[in-house]
């Protein structure tokens, strides 16, 4: 696989995942070995890591990934997971003002809430009232959003459609 093709696929995947929930899998020459049976654990890890951000893969995408050499699968894993984490906001630090909401707010008096809000905004959001965060039950696992195998022709059609609508492929979906 040449460097230019790999680079083109990597940049396209960031956009394609966001716009169409699809992934381009690089075309591998016949001289590069596909995953060996012992390496299938890497494929399973890739799928499990996608689940951690709420995504799964279609059978077609799974089959295409299984034909990749380990180095290509690793690259695809890293770029896809990074793009999905960014898409779902996993790259952000979540520090709520009231971590035990809604009960914490319902139990607070209005004067305390007002003063906390006032100081919070006065300090440009740096002030957070000291609170012991109580443990919460885990959320129920929801359905996974399925990522499908994409083709370069589909990506190019998506790009052309965006251009004809007067927006770029970098615009939110």
Q: What is the structure about, briefly put?
A:
The protein is mainly α and 173 residues long. The chain has helices at residues 3-20, 40-51, 59-66, 70-88, 103-107, 110-122, 152-164; strands at residues 22-24, 55-57, 145-150. Helix 1 packs parallel to helix 4 and helix 2 (40-51) runs parallel beside helix 4.
Please tell me about this protein's structure.
There is one protein chain. This protein has 173 residues and is mainly alpha-helical. The chain folds into 2 domains: 3-92 and 142-164, no CATH class; 100-133, no CATH class. Helices cover 51% and strands 7% of the residues. The protein contains 7 helices and 3 strands. It has helices at residues 3-20, 40-51, 59-66, 70-88, 103-107, 110-122, 152-164, and strands at residues 22-24, 55-57, 145-150. Strands 1-3-2 form a 3-stranded parallel sheet. Helix 1 packs parallel to helix 4 and helix 2 (40-51) packs parallel to helix 4 (70-88). The longest helix has 19 residues, at 70-88. The protein starts with a helix and ends in a 9-residue tail after the last helix. The model has no long low-confidence stretch (mean pLDDT 84).
């Amino acid at each position: 696989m040449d460097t230019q093709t790999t680079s083109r696929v990597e940049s396209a995947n960031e956009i394609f995942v966001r716009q169409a929930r699809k992934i381009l899998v690089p075309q591998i020459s016949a001289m590069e070995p596909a995953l060996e049976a012992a390496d299938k654990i890497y494929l399973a890890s890739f799928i499990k890591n996608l689940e951690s951000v709420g995504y799964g893969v279609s059978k077609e995408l799974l089959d295409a990934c299984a034909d990749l050499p380990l180095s290509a699968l690793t690259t695809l894993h890293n770029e896809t997971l990074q793009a999905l984490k960014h898409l779902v906001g996993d790259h952000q630090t979540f520090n709520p003002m009231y971590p035990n909401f809604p009960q914490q707010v319902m139990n607070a008096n209005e004067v305390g809430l007002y003063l906390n809000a006032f100081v919070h905004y006065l300090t440009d959001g740096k002030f957070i009232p000291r609170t012991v965060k109580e443990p919460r039950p885990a959320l129920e696992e929801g359905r996974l959003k399925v990522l499908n195998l994409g083709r370069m022709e589909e990506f190019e059609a998506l790009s052309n459609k965006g251009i004809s609508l007067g927006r770029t492929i970098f615009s939110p979906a």
